[in-house]
Amino acid sequence: MEPERNEVHQPLLEPIQDVKGSTSTGGHGGSVELEMVLSDTETPYMRRFWLASKIELNLLFKLAAPAVMVYLINNAMSLSTRIFSGQLGNLELAAASLGNSGIQLFAYGLMLGMGSAVETLCGQAFGAQKYDMLGVYLQRSAIVLTITAIPITMIYVFSRPILLLLGQSPSMASAAALFVYGLIPQIFAYAINFPIQKFLQAQSIVAPSMYISAGTFVIHMIMSWIMAYKLNLGLLGASLTLSLSWWIIVVGQSKYIMMSDRFKDTWTGFNSKAFGGLWEFVKLSSGSAVMLCLETWYFQILVLIAGLLDNPELALDALSVCMGVQALLFMVSVGFNAAASVRVGNELGAGNPKAAAFSVWMVTGVSFIIAVVESTIIFSMRDVISYAFTTGETVANEVSDLCPLLVVTLILNGIRPVLSGVAVGCGWQAYVAYVNIGCYYIVGLPLGFLLGFYFDLGVKGIWSGMIGGSGMQTLILLWSTFRTDWNKEVEIATKRLNKWEENKESLLKK
Fold first, then answer.
1. Which of 396, 434, 484, 509 is most deeply packed, by most CB within 10 A?
2. Per the UniProt entry, what is one GO biological process (predicted)?
């Protein structure tokens, strides 16, 4: 039976102390105001829309802008590592690209996906004002991800035979494996960083992460230059520097959480309760991991398949440039993905169905407009963007030829990741995982093989087929989101938080 609106919203009408210590209506004054504006049927529709847009855009950009910068800077560190490698030679550029896209993205997708469980639980718990649970979720996730990192390390250790098994040439596999060995410490940095990142984002505290990442990026550039050129450590030096930079970010953010008064309600120190309920957390994390991994691995497979084409070095170099640009701009979408997840999770946890729905469409629209602008700029620079990576004219021509496909991918990226963020905020990870399997691996991948090899369209055919799968997934997520009953989603969020609260209480009694 659907709860009455008064039952859902009554707790929000009582002023309480928020996590920063200031008194506000439910600790989320803007959210409450947004729900009130959207519920005021006596106000003309256009005025309601205008007022609601002002409130939501203010909330959105305070969260999305620093989140975008964090993801851009973190990706720029990886991108700069490949650029430093590319200046050593075309083989080194191809090896760094293969090691990054063929091996490292496997760990990135798995760990980030598992960390998304924290995003769902912390976002909804913060909206429901169950602040003490955020620190427990953070620690529980860090434990699960650190344990997961151990078997992943074996993939890195045996990366050379794995790449040979996948059909890569011995010289390419050896060079890529050397690059990957230096990334092993990065796996464990992921295990700590992603839960911390989601913990901060759930509270709309992102700016400190931006400053820490920006400072680390400066250090990273200096160390990369020293390791690659002054100490002549080549690919291994470049990747070891990247690992060290990620650990600097982890230490910086950890110190900030432990020392700042902003977290006095959400971080109460290390707690033995984090070791309880791990299996339930693993199950939720697994659904998140499958959802994101299926997306991350999809374009990872594109790079691996390109290595099987005639003249694979040229194909990999051109794809490395395109994927580097795509990955960098994708961080803008990932920033909005985080904003969508937090906004929707907070609103559902707070019992604001109208505000949740409005947030979804507002963040999707803004992200799409930005993606169109990005695509226009990239297309106008299609003849010169490759020179940031390598000086080869042949690669530049190939990149220019692939640029229309890059533009379509960028436009889809303006919508698809945001809707995935909505799914995380709502806890739909398992559903999206099934959609991804169907669209990516039953439609997109076979279509890419057909166009690329049977019709002899090469890398353009492979990429075109995979765009078909991405487009189908985007349409399905748009349709599913449009049909969502947001009142029902509020009920589901309440039940989920009550379940985890019961788990905590049972642990306290032991």
1. 396
2. xenobiotic detoxification by transmembrane export across the plasma membrane
Q: What are the structural domain ranges in the chain?
A: 45-509
Residue 274 pLDDT level (bands cut at 50, 70, 90)? low
Which DSSP category does 3 fall into?
Answer: P
| Residue reference for tokens 């709309």 | 204
Rounded CA gap, 465 and 442, in Å? 11
Task: Map residue 23 onto helix, strand or coil.
Answer: strand
| Cα separations in angstroms, 192 against 21, 79, 140, 273 | 27, 22, 11, 18
SS3 25: strand
Among the listed residues 406, 324, 332, the one whose alpha carbon sits nearest the alpha carbon of residue 370: 332
Tens of pLDDT, residues 189-218: 999 998 998 899 888 888 899 999 999 999
Structure tokens at 80: 């700069």
Classified as helix, coil or strand, 268 is coil
404-439: buried (b, 16+ CB within 10 Å) or exposed (e) per residue? ebbbbbbbbbbbbbbbbbbbbbbbbbebbbebbeeb
pLDDT at position 315 is: 79
3-state secondary structure at position 418: helix
Give the tens place of pLDDT for each residue, 395-444: 889 899 999 999 999 999 999 989 988 988 888 888 888 898 999 999 99
Q: How far is CA 173 from CA 97, 167, 300, 328, in A?
A: 11, 9, 16, 25
Q: Is the pLDDT of residue 361 over 90?
A: yes
Enumerate residues 6+ apart whose C-beta is below 8 A from 5.
Answer: none
In this structure, of 35-44, 221-230, 340-349, the range with the lowest mean pLDDT score is 221-230
Give the CA-trace dihedral at 366, 367, 369, 374, to 10 degrees.
140
The residues with which 23 forms a beta bridge, in sequence order, are 17
b/e per residue, 205-217, with b = 16+ CB within 10 A?
Answer: bbbbbbebbeebb
User: What's 17's DSSP letter?
Assistant: E
pLDDT mean across residues, the chain: 83
Helix (H) or strand (E) holding 64: helix 45-86
